[in-house]
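Lab notebook: predicted structure, single chain.

Context: the supervisor wants predicted structures on file for every construct in the current expression panel, including those that have not yet been purified. This is the next one on the list. No modifications to the sequence; it matches the entry in the shared construct table.
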Amino acid sequence: MTYSGDKLFNSNNLFAVIILLLGGVLSFYKSENFPFFIPLLMAIFITSGQAFYFELTENELIIKNYIIPFLNFRYQQSEITQVQF
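Prediction complete. Output recorded below exactly as produced.
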């Protein structure tokens, strides 16, 4: 069973897209705005820190990230004693 919510249309992704578009437009018209990409990268990392979803198999709880696909956490169900959200 997998619970992933709505991966494409949520407020985290909307924030990241707006910031990326704004930074792209500003840096396209003015080359001195190049340092503006540093906050853009920070926005992507903050957004990806909230982009987790859960997959439950017979033996494992797998926590995945849909923005950074290689970021996975695996836990054996027999080792889980408490889950807090």
